[in-house]
Amino acid sequence: MKYLSFSRLLACVGLAAPLGAFAASLNIEFEEYDLPNGMHVILHQNSDAPVVSSYVLYHVGSKDERSDRTGFAHFFEHLMFEGSENIERKQIDKLISGAGGNLNASTSFDRTDYYINLPANELELALWIESERLMHAVIDNDGVETQREVVKEERRGRYENQPYGSIMENMAKAVFDGTPYEWTPIGSAQYIDSATIEEFRDFYKKWYVPNNATLAIAGDIDIEETKLLVERYFGEIQRGPDPERVAIDWDLEAPVTTKVVEEAMTPLPATVHIWRAPVLTDEDAEAIELLINILAIGKSSRLYRRLVDTERAAVNAAAFTWLQEKAGLVAAYAIGNRGVSIEQLDALVEEEVQKLVDEGVTSKELQKALNQKEAEIASSVGTMSSRAESLAYYHLWHGDAGRANNELEAYLKVTREDLQRVAKKYLLKERRNTLHYPVPSK
Amino acid sequence: MKTISIIILLALPLAFVACDSKSGSSVDSGKSAAMEPLDRSKRPDPGPAPASSFPDYDTITTSEGLTLYVIESNRQPTITYRLMFRSGGLFDGEKTGLAEFVASMLDQGVAGKSAFELASEIDFIGASLSASASSDFIAVSVSGLSKYKEQLLGILNSVVRAPTFPEEELEKLKQRTVSNLMSERSEPDALIEKLRRKLVYGEGGYGAFQSEESVASITRDDLVAFHRKHFIPNNASMAVVGQIGQEEGVKLVENRLRGWRKGSAPEQPELNFPTIGERSVHLLDRSGSVQSTVRVAQQSVPRSNPDVPELKVVMSVLGGGFSGRLFQNLREDKGYTYGAGSYTANAAKMGAIVSYADVRNEVTADAVGEIFNELNRIREEPIPESELDMHKKYLAGNYMLSLERPMTIAQNVQEIDVYGLAPDYYQTYVAQLMSVTPELALELANKYLHPRKSLVAIVGKREEVGESLERFGGVRIYDEKLETQDERDSVSHRETP
Q1: So what's the architecture of B60-257 in CATH?
Q2: For a surface tag, which of A46, B116, B176, B380 has the fewest beta carbons within 10 Å of its beta carbon?
Q3: How near does any CA of chain A get to the CA of B6, in Å?
Q4: Residue B428: which pLDDT band, with cuts at 50, 70 and 90?
Q5: Buried b / exposed e across A66-97, counting CB within 10 Å, b at 16+?
Q6: What is the distance between the alpha carbons of residues B268 and B232, in angstroms, rounded to a whole number?
Q7: Which three-class secondary structure state does DSSP give residue A335?
Q8: Which residues of B267-296 are buried (b: 16+ CB within 10 A; e: fewer)?
Q9: Same fold: B60-257 with B280-495
Q10: B337 beta partners
Q11: Which residues pair with B443 in a beta bridge?
């Protein structure tokens, strides 16, 4: 039996950190350098299997959009599959399929990524495709028209046609209001419809420059030869102006909101409690994550134990963090059993959170959270694709790809006192925003 | 994200030398090529094709009759134990969902430990336990850090051998399950899957699904009886995957499972399937739908049919990945949908072939028409050599890439066991893919694809799409409990005699 959870609705735009990075006991060797045009390159060699993964990370996401042009970054991700000056329209997919590989891409608030996995002898194909789309992607009417329709269907399918499908947009609006995080990567169809081809080209020129990109390659490669190939394909691409980014004033103490979302298809009552949280590089980030895990991960976690098991009030209860580049939130939610009132769910979640504030956690709970973190890190380094992604992630956000090798250390520094301190700092009731999804009366 | 539909690949060749026939003549493309100016107009030549082989594994049978595989991998410091029983929902009998209940109840109390005590133990070492039932099997696995390899195996051992199935926990599970059933009635993906299965397989077996009544009927005695009959070592295989050697793995498992009593392996139930004579159209009316969830489905061969690898190539041309015809037609050409494709639903007794797309209301009938056009085209016209070649390489290459994941390897070794595939299935798999010619593909398409005996299943808004679907035949309407008007009438008739 599948248990109802919001994770599917929340996970699909690539908000979370990769469950990546490497356990302390593994040392993933890599080399990194900048090309003269500013592109950052990270190479990891591993010959366990004859595969190679190419991962290109652009530092542009939905928060870099104008408020009257939301959905641009994600829409652009679709256009990047259309073709380039040297690759005919609609051929990128087929080139990769015919080489025995696979590819995809995703867009979040802060970044857009593109990956290609191939048999190791086809590395150059990936470099050709990625350099072509960075250098001179073709942005024309045909591609734009089709993808407009495709993206509208993506929006309908993922969000509008699903129960609780508006949850992500409502959370962002509640907590990030007044910042460019208040809209989500899928954006609004109307803006994509009203944008001109020139605007798409301008977006491309501004953000798709080598000095705004990280290229990570992992797999069965020869490092020296790969350096030559990277230079050969990407070296000639001109550096652009460093993109100017809008400053974001992230106020942790802004006024709170409550919203009742009435939707005809809501099957069970649900409540979401949301608090403003710091940015992902903040010194409190690890403590917040461990605290949320104590609340939410596993059947012995506090929310599951209380709401699902002991009180039998909820079919599921959990919590999660969304720490972004320039803003952040944490949320706890419960989806009630049939007939349970939202007020009861609210009271139970509130009590469990308040206990963290008032009493902190036990040392056994802290140890449990650290052990869970260790296992999570250890079980996410198996594929070349995950390694490339993790190295690029730590380079972009922490300026230190090597952090992928010692991610656990930052968590091991966290103390019980830290956990209670961050609970008091961020999870106070008066800082709480609330979203309700009542079941409509028929 | 672009889309999520990629053919599910079955991994593990014993010696697979990849796929480009020209690769022998192309030189190493690195340093030598770097001397010449780059010609961006041409696709770069691949280097010499890599050889890849499936890691050696032995099939061990323990003295208890358990089939055991150890797949060593040192990529990450973790270990997974996965038990797969050759019994699933097909053994539910009258009580649909019984196998799923057994699986869900395994960790809700074991000898000497309550559900919460066990959960605390699992969580404390950062382990994860999963147990699920499909129609053909029940899989129970425990994963975690390899430094806890003995504890992890101990957890698995206690949940499969000594579950206590407490009444109180069963009541809680029933309550949650009923809530989930409510929820599923508003989820298009859950609804379409039930409708599709009901239509292809009929009421019982693969077509059965839970209801409030079936949930209420399940008792603790049912769980105990199912467990006693099916959770026996000679009805299961176990894969040990991760940072552990063959010898150590075998020893560990043999020691821990010693004394697990054999039983008589349960006899597989006989199934009856409906005969589908002609095309029919079925619409589940979901008044809030802003998109139609479309499936065109037919009955197909069991997983063990020897043509399955070759048929996979035909299916890939039809609807595999981004380069499949359905994706190219419905998305890239028409812009009807975000994702479109086709897949084979594997099952031991009877599979299904399913084409899918979620499309906006106003193009629902046109999308169904295009799916039929593609089903007909692949039966009428030979697949061009270059297109066929691309899909063979796509399947073979991705199959090789999947070898990167030891868990996939283990799952596929266990599939040989549970579906009764030929022992050398994966040794010959790539050769079978590569053997498909346009002539053979045409023959297979005509033999196995049956658009005239296909069922059109849709979850959508009747008011907006119902009429347009009539061009494919009379439309039967269902409600969110998957009942037609007739069925509702007959139910109320029975209840009020």
Answers
A1: 2-Layer Sandwich (3.30)
A2: B380
A3: 9
A4: confident
A5: eeebbbbbbbbbbbbbbbbebbeebbbbbbbb
A6: 15
A7: strand
A8: eeeebeeeebeebbbbbbbbeebbbbbbbb
A9: yes
A10: B359
A11: none
Band of residue B103 on the pLDDT scale cut at 50, 70, 90: very high
* Runs of H (alpha helix) within B258-336: 308-319, 325-326
Our CA-based measurement puts residue A283 at a distance from the nearest CA of chain B, in whole angstroms, of 24
Residues 6+ apart with CB under 8 A from A326: A63, A179, A181, A248, A250, A279
Q: What own/partner pairs with CB < 8 Å and gap ≥ 24 does A90-96 have?
A: A90/B328, A90/B332, A92/A129, A92/A133, A93/B321, A93/B322, A93/B323, A94/B323, A94/B390, A95/A125, A95/A129, A95/B43, A96/A125, A96/A129
Domain-wise residue ranges, chain A: 19-234, 258-437
Distance from CA of B277 to the nearest CA of A (A): 33
Looking at domain A258-437, its CATH class is alpha beta
Closest CA to B173 of B247, B251, B257, B108: B108
How close is the nearest chain A Cα to the Cα of B270, in Å?
25
Strands of A39-193 (E only): list them.
40-45, 51-58, 102-107, 112-119
At A118, the pLDDT band (50, 70, 90 cuts) reads very high
CB contact under 8 A, A161 and B291: yes
Q: Say whether residue B188 is in contact with chain A using an 8 A CB cutoff.
A: yes
Q: Which residues of A touch B76 (CB under 8 A)?
A: 23, 26, 378-382
Considering only CB atoms, which chain B residues are within 8 Å of A264?
A: 287-288
- Model pLDDT, residue A25: 52
Please indicate if any CB of chain B lies within 8 Å of the CB of A308: yes
What does A185-198 look like in DSSP terms, one character per residue? TT--HHHHHH--HH
In tens, the pLDDT along B283-298 reads 999 999 999 999 999 9
Nearest CA among B210, B328, B279, B341 for reference residue B473:
B279
Question: Is residue A1 less than 8 Å (CB to CB) from chain B?
Answer: yes
* E-strand stretches of B205-255: 236-242
Decide if B375 contacts B31 (C-beta within 8 A): no
Is the Cβ pair B126, A375 closer than 8 Å? yes
Tell me whether residues B43 and A14 touch, CB distance under 8 A: no
Architecture per CATH, domain B280-495, reads as: 2-Layer Sandwich (3.30)
Alpha-helical runs (H) found in A244-328: 285-296, 302-303
Query: Which pair of tokens denotes residue B84?
Result: 């797969």
pLDDT averaged over every residue in chain B: 90
Q: Residues 377..436 of A with a Cβ closer than 8 Å to B: which? A: 378-384
Provide the sign of the torsion angle of the four alpha carbons A334, A335, A340, A341, taken in this order.
Answer: positive
Residue A62 per-residue DSSP state: G
In angstroms, rounded to a whole number, what is the distance separating the alpha carbons of residues B34 and B274? 63
Q: Indicate the pLDDT class of residue B489, thresholds 50, 70 and 90.
A: low
| One fold for A19-234 and A258-437 | yes
For domain A19-234, is the CATH number 3.30.830.10?
A: yes
Please report residues of B whose CB lies closer than 8 A to that of A14.
1
A 79-108 near B (Cβ less than 8 A): 81, 85-86, 90, 93-95, 97-107
Give kind and range of the element (H or E) at residue B117.
Answer: helix B115-124
What's the ipTM?
A: 0.92
Residues of chain B neighbouring A124 (CB-CB closer than 8 A): 29, 44-47
Distance to chain B for A431, nearest Cα, Å: 30
| pTM for this predicted structure | 0.91
pLDDT at B490: 63
Residue A215 reports pLDDT greater than 90? yes
Q: How far is CA B89 from its chain centroid? A: 14
pLDDT score, position B276 = 94
Per-domain boundaries in chain B? 60-257, 280-495
Q: Do B41 and A338 touch (CB under 8 A)?
A: no
